[in-house]
Specification:
heterodimer, A: 172 residues, globular, B: mainly alpha
Chain lengths: 172, 186
């Protein structure tokens, strides 16, 4: 039995499917796909659970949990659940599901996980500054030809390239 | 029939997300190694996948609008806040170079077994809390230099949409052509 993972799709084929899915999303909902909208809702809900008074008093998270409203009761929650299911189907059907720690190949596991945590913190902070992430602003914004989408992508690629070159020795 | 339909329920969320997650997995974006290889210019899949997707969706909306089926004034177009939009992109780009993912792809990574994807995701939650704590003091920066509401590149450049679409197609074609022979990482 062949147990090797199936090959990835060509970038233009995967991009075409992604584009059709994005077009379907716009046509069905009136907006694009997202990612950080969900993590923000989860952050608000989590903070409300642990520290309700501080959350209610916070100028950013407070309005999201005002009047006992649940920030997770939103379209984006179902969309991210769909992303998770779609990715799981994709990974299993291509025999690519494997518990592993990816990341800088020249670092030990603890170093890789520390980098992942640090990168996540920076990306999470950044996505709130710009009111959207690579999905919501970069991909979906640019598809509407929004100036904001292209300005975000410019900042994303320039900074990504600078930090990518600075960290290149950590990767084999 | 008039589009968009305005369906924002459970089924539309699950279906649209499912296609998104599956396409990202097939592109290889569950791998931090592949994603960051773009930022070291070793692999152009991130650029080519994203640009292809942007063009397919943008052309699709353009033609649906031409036929009168889709009203673009009912479609959400984000507004630029110059410093916030650009610096947010800088943050997300740095986060990907350092941590390997972005918010959406960290979910895809974890769902194909990548523990670092889950850790990155946890980092995003912490980063959001840090942002919330600093929100008041950052408000002047966040709201600085706002652009016209929902401005498109066509409006900025005072050209028709099809000119922008052709320009983007040219960029995608040139990059796609030059990178077609470059080795891809798995």
């Amino acid at each position: 039995m062949n147990v090797d993972p199936k090959p990835l799709w060509k970038p233009h084929a995967a991009g075409a499917l992604l584009g059709l899915g994005l077009l379907l999303t716009f046509v069905v909902t009136g907006h694009g796909l997202g990612g950080s909208g969900f993590t923000t809702a989860l952050s608000a809900a989590g903070a409300d659970l642990v520290a309700p008074a501080a959350t209610a008093a916070n100028a950013y998270l407070g309005p999201m949990v005002a009047d006992d409203s649940n920030p997770l009761d939103a379209w984006i929650t179902w969309q991210v659940l769909g992303v998770a299911i779609g990715a799981l189907i994709g990974a299993i059907s291509a025999r690519r599901f494997r518990f592993s720690v990816d990341g800088p190949t020249r670092l030990p596991t603890a170093g890789r996980l520390s980098m992942a945590l640090l990168g996540g913190i920076i990306a999470g902070f950044g996505a709130r500054v710009s009111l959207g992430c690579t999905s919501g602003l970069g991909l979906s914004g640019a598809a509407t030809l929004a100036t904001a989408g292209f300005l975000f992508l410019g900042g994303f690629f320039v900074s990504g390239a600078i930090f990518g070159l600075l960290t290149r020795r950590l990767w084999a | 029939m008039s589009l968009p339909l305005g369906f924002n329920g459970v089924v539309s969320g699950l279906l649209c997300g499912l296609i998104f997650g599956f396409a990202l997995e097939r592109a290889g974006f569950a791998s931090a190694c592949k994603l960051t290889a773009q930022l070291r210019f070793k692999d152009w899949a991130v650029f080519n996948v994203m640009f292809t997707a942007i063009l397919v969706a943008a052309f699709g909306m353009y033609f649906l609008q031409l036929t009168g089926l889709l009203s673009m004034d009912q479609v959400y177009v984000p507004t630029t806040y110059f410093w916030a939009t650009a610096l947010g992109g800088v943050g997300v780009g740095a986060g990907m170079a350092i941590g390997g993912y972005c918010p959406g792809t960290s979910v895809v990574g974890f769902m194909s077994g990548k523990i670092d994807g889950l850790v990155f995701f946890a980092g995003i939650i912490i980063g959001t809390w840090v942002f919330a704590g600093a929100y008041d003091s950052m408000l002047p920066l966040l709201e600085a230099a706002p652009g016209p509401e929902a401005q498109t590149l066509s409006q900025l450049l005072h050209v028709p949409d099809w000119v922008v679409l052709l320009g983007l197609t040219a960029v995608a074609a040139v990059v796609g052509w030059f990178t077609a022979r470059a080795p891809a990482t798995d």
